[in-house]
Amino acid sequence: MRLPLIAGNWKMNMTETEGISLVRVLIPRVRALPGVEVLVCPPFTALSQLHKLLISSPIQLGAQNISEHEAGAYTGEISARMAAEFCSHVILGHSERRAYHAESDRSIHHKIQMARTAGLVPILCVGESLEERDAGQVSSVLSRQLRRALEGIPLSGPQELVIAYEPVWAIGTGRSADPEDISELVANVIRPSLVGLWGENISQGIRVLYGGSVNPGNAMSFFSQPEIDGALVGGASLEAEKFLSVIEKTQ
């Protein structure tokens, strides 16, 4: 059985003070919920203080991005080693990074290499645009993104990687994909791609999350599907009660 994972991506929201207030509400409530892993991914500025607050809690801490470079003269960048001082996970390949910062499959591959070397668990985001979906290219787009980002990456176990399927057209739009369609897509495209990279044993244990306008009203419909192992939550993770409601739907 794959343990559900609910990850909150705060994006460019929340000051350090606001983030501390939020997680103080989350900690006791999450502690009372068995059988689910919870992760929050705040802006870099809040990582240090939230790490101190969360270190003895059941909530894990993730970064929203890292550099593809190990160190050096890269103004404004954060290395994997810097993030690993505070974090267990890192989101990589998010569609907003691909669209607004021209991140390529190759640069994402390098970032995954950096993350694994530093001991971080990558949450690799993959997903098609509306144009690609309408053109019937969903399978080829996802297979390409997975292969180019992950080929040659060694894994010793399924806990060392998480996949987040986020159709670009559903992120922040209020539209969400059909849960049954997503489960079939994971079973028929994403999971076989992973099997091709690491074999059946490891690949069947890698968790695949859904992301794209997940909220308390639709979360249960996703979590009831056998191939959806949790969610990467955006806007709903910025309010404690909404985020807790999504988490509770895994119970």
How would you describe the overall organization of this protein?
By secondary structure, the protein is α/β, with parallel strands linked by helices. The protein has one domain: TIM Barrel (Alpha-Beta Barrel). It is 42% helix and 15% strand. Strands 1-2-3-4-5-6-7-8 form an eight-stranded parallel β-barrel, surrounded by six helices. Helix 9 links the parallel strand 7 and strand 8. Helix 1 packs parallel to helix 2, helix 1 runs parallel beside helix 10 and helix 7 packs parallel to helix 8. The protein is globular and about 45 Å long. It starts with a strand and ends with a helix.
What number of domains?
1
Distance between the termini: 14 Å
Strands across the major sheet, in which order? 1-2-3-4-5-6-7-8
Going by CATH, the architecture would be Alpha-Beta Barrel
Total beta strands? 8
The CATH superfamily turns out to be: Aldolase class I
Q: Helix and strand string, N-terminal first?
A: EHEHEHEHHEHHEHEHEH
State the oligomer.
Answer: single chain
Helix segment tally:
10
Helix content: 40-55%
Envelope shape: globular
Kindly identify the CATH topology. Answer: TIM Barrel
Query: In CATH's first tier, which class applies?
Result: Alpha Beta
Counting helices, strands and paired strands, the structural category is: alpha/beta
Overall radius of gyration: 17 Å
Q: Outline the biggest β-sheet.
A: 8 strands, parallel, barrel
Describe the structure in brief:
The protein is α/β, with parallel strands linked by helices and 251 residues long. The chain contains 10 helices and 8 strands.
